[in-house]
């Protein structure tokens, strides 16, 4: 049977609960355990797929096509495990399945209630995560802060879960804040005491406290927290602010957090191998050059809307010991083709990521045209690839009214269109192409040079596709279709000949990038951006 760890948060939100959970997962994985992660989100949306990127940030997509919270991206990047649709459960998901069962008569006449029906459903989702992954250890993060009304059913469910599975099979880790008060120059434990008291009022006694703090905790504070919160003093863990989040697992390891977890769960603390992680930290702390990437998007006011893209750029930078500076450029600013030289003055490469709707696409297309005409490395992702195709059709193939059906349903030249299958479904209920699809890489292309293989799988989240009617014309004008989904005959990757790097993909490669394993397409883009910068300075 799997063992279970539940991570709760107290005092304030934004403490780094997700990174705490991921760091513990990493240490356990490096000790040879199979680890799986799950996040409970107490909001009522079924998933974040319909929430504005301005509110919620990016929607992270799993290989099996679930639209999930961006914390899952942290999990995957830290532990390098592919999560699945059992990994992100919202209140909406729980209620909708309970209501569906009620309508199907599955509760045979009983009054359906929060306890036990909602809490049972939550407990089932914890078990499903364990069953679907076959993991030795499942770590579940409970979104929100203790005391929030909306997370109560989740708290009650994990309390019951522990009662049913036994102390040795599940563990409660509570993350809190130890604020530092300027003036009296002291760290304060009271907010933590109160949040543990809140947790106890719901029947949960934490086993381990992870204390976010700006200053080191001395032994007297640790003893005080241990005494007042009824936790072993060795289980009061300091989570001091760090410059580089990859240091957090090492800080925990130095305090033996993973050994304590193994002891409490009554499993062997197998030998650990952290070599790869130490190498990563060394790389991150010793970047010796920098490159500036212009990220042109619709939602740049909230950087979290492009979290995985940002991370994937940074990972590719690690490969070349290069720091990535991102210039966040709102596509709204580029509506007119004016001052382009000025706007892109310091930029070594231009990336246009995904997005939905017609707003500000003109600006994104102007950025693409600028990159194409001036031989500046360009990378278009999903919408970015679609817009690169429309720009190419308009300005290279001379189809002045080229467009996407997404922006103009009546367009005579739909370079980007719904694919046949979606067209049919669309009349009933529009749907997205979500999750993993295979792609065949064509040999002797840039895509092949970097992927170094022919068959790949990449994650998707889009409704529209390149319209194959235009393939021949595009090829005549110098476009290379370097990745295709052969089964569905869909364009997956485009690249331009006679350009140092002009590449676009219909999928979202950013979801598969890892700090220790950059994604091949990001690697191509960053490598050429670095070369571009060096050439300008006559270094190469
Ligand atoms: N809006 C486009 C589509 O639905 C692109 C989506 C995206 O960039 N994720 O096809």
Cα gyration radius (Å): 25 Å
CATH superfamily of the largest domain: P-loop containing nucleotide triphosphate hydrolases
How far apart are the termini?
58 Å
* Largest β sheet strand count, sense and barrel closure: 9 strands, mixed
Bound heterogens, unique: glutamine
The number of E-state strands comes to 23
Give your account of this protein's structure.
With 540 residues, the chain is of the alpha/beta class. The chain has two domains: 3-280, 3-Layer(aba) Sandwich (Rossmann fold), CATH 3.40.50.300; 289-536, Class I glutamine amidotransferase (GATase) domain (Rossmann fold, 3-Layer(aba) Sandwich), CATH 3.40.50.880. Helices cover 38% and strands 23% of the residues. The strands form five sheets. Strands 13-12-14-15-23-22-21-18-19 form a nine-stranded mixed sheet, with helices on both faces. A seven-stranded parallel sheet has the order 5-2-6-1-7-10-11, with helices on both faces. α1 packs parallel to α3, α1 crosses α9 (247-254) and α12 crosses α19 (520-536). It is globular. It starts with a strand and ends with a helix. Bound molecules: glutamine.
Question: What's the layout of helices and strands?
Answer:
Elements: E1 3-9, H1 17-30, E2 35-41, H2 53-56, E3 60-61, E4 67-68, H3 71-79, E5 88-90, H4 91-103, H5 114-133, E6 137-142, H6 152-165, E7 170-177, E8 180-181, E9 186-187, H7 190-201, E10 208-213, H8 219-229, E11 236-240, H9 247-254, H10 257-265, H11 275-285, E12 289-297, H12 307-319, E13 322-330, H13 340-343, E14 349-352, H14 361-373, E15 378-381, H15 383-395, E16 402-404, E17 413-418, H16 420-428, E18 433-441, H17 446-451, E19 455-462, E20 464-466, H18 471-476, E21 479-485, E22 490-496, E23 502-505, H19 520-536
Parallel strand pairs: 1-6, 1-7, 2-5, 2-6, 7-10, 10-11, 12-13, 12-14, 14-15, 15-23, 16-17
Antiparallel strand pairs: 3-4, 8-9, 17-20, 18-19, 18-21, 21-22, 22-23
Helix pairs in contact: 1-3, 1-9, 4-5, 5-6, 12-19, 14-15
This protein binds glutamine (GLN).
